């Protein structure tokens, strides 16, 4: 079965991972690169590489124990060609090294259905739509990373935490040019818009009008209640936006941005809220974002199986 069919729901519900980026950047013992983020930890033999692998290992164990197909994402949300070139890792194959690490972790559990997604992020601040590049510039900026991830052997490409439609279209162009299936994920507001003010219905229509549309549309970095309100306000997006990697806190991007600590939620409460929203709006891919850890993912897996 191809990746496109699996993310399209052919295997039924799929579970994503929980937070990795937000967990590791808050650990004082973990070296966190200001430009490349967690993507540089693959080169840290003093503990960062192991910390990265262990988080993935724990999340994939939850999925395997629950018998759920999983989507694992490389730690390359900030590993664009522009950021790598400006960092101490200039010239290093950061994307390929992260693919190899995650592929090795996945191989530790042969037989477990896991898709390996190559992760791309926005060029600028994920919460600042005004900083997002226009479509053609975005295609040019993101194409080298999309090509590097595809060449390293991922199953599909995934871009997350996007604030603006123009950059999303440019990213879609860059990812589609690799001939791999791809997923596009936005930060949404309760009024049914993304952060640049575009209504979700218009976002879906613009992406589906592409020659090679996304295999899946989803949201991330918002609480389940926020996506619930957004989809109620934009009913034409229901059935097309079918995934959510959720925060534990029902806070706006402005409240989350630069927060020194993350507001957590009791794992079972979080899981039940997320599954209730998934039932209501026919979501098929569920996982965690800010504030989540292995406890939240385990509770989510139990709720999904129930």
Could you please describe the fold and organization of this structure?
By secondary structure, the chain is an alpha/beta fold. The chain has a single domain (3-305), classed as Alpha-Beta Barrel (TIM Barrel). The chain has helices spanning 3-7, 21-25, 48-66, 81-86, 94-107, 135-152, 165-176, 200-208, 224-233, 253-256, 267-281, 294-305, and strands at residues 14-15, 70-73, 114-120, 156-162, 182-186, 216-222, 241-246, 285-288. An eight-stranded parallel beta sheet has the order 1-8-7-6-5-4-3-2. The relative contact order is 0.14.
Q: Report the count of strand segments.
A: 8
CATH superfamily: Homocysteine-binding-like domain
Largest sheet: 8 strands, parallel
CATH architecture: Alpha-Beta Barrel
* Number of domains as seen in the coordinates: 1
CATH class label: Alpha Beta
Number of helices: 12
Q: How large a portion of the residues is in β-strands, by DSSP E?
A: 5-15%
Measure the end-to-end span: 25 Å
N-to-C SSE series?
HEHHEHHEHEHEHEHEHHEH
| Radius of gyration, taken over Cα atoms and rounded to an integer in Å | 17 Å
Strand order of the largest sheet: 1-8-7-6-5-4-3-2
Structural class: alpha/beta
Regions with pLDDT < 50 over 5+ consecutive residues?
Answer: none
CATH fold-level topology: TIM Barrel
Overall geometric form: globular
């Amino acid at each position: 079965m191809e990746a496109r069919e699996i993310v399209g729901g052919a295997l039924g519900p799929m579970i994503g991972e929980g937070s990795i980026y937000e967990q590791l950047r808050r650990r004082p013992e973990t070296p966190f690169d200001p430009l490349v983020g967690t993507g540089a930890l693959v080169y840290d033999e003093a503990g960062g590489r192991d910390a990265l692998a262990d988080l993935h290992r724990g999340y994939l164990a939850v999925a395997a124990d629950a018998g759920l197909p999983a989507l694992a994402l490389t730690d390359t949300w900030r590993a664009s060609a522009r950021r790598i070139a400006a960092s101490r890792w200039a010239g290093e194959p950061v994307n390929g090294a992260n693919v190899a690490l995650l592929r090795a972790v996945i191989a530790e559990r042969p037989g477990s259905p896991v898709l390996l997604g190559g992760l791309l992020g926005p060029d600028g601040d994920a919460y600042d739509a005004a900083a997002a590049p226009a479509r053609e510039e975005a295609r040019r900026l993101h194409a080298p990373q999309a090509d590097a991830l595809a060449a390293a052997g991922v199953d599909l490409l995934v871009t997350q935490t996007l604030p603006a439609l123009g950059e999303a279209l440019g990213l879609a162009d860059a990812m589609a040019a690799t001939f791999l299936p791809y997923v596009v994920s936005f930060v949404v507001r309760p009024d049914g818009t993304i952060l640049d003010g575009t209504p979700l219905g218009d976002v879906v229509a613009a992406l589906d009008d592409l020659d090679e549309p996304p295999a899946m549309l989803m949201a991330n970095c918002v609480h389940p209640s926020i996506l619930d309100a957004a989809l109620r306000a934009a009913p034409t997006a229901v059935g097309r936006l079918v995934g959510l990697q959720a925060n534990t806190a029902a806070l706006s991007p402005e409240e989350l941005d630069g927060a020194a600590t993350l507001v957590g939620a009791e794992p079972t409460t979080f899981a039940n809220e997320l599954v209730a929203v998934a039932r209501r709006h026919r979501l098929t891919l569920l996982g965690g974002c800010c504030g989540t850890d292995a406890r939240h993912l385990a509770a989510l897996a139990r709720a999904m199986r129930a």
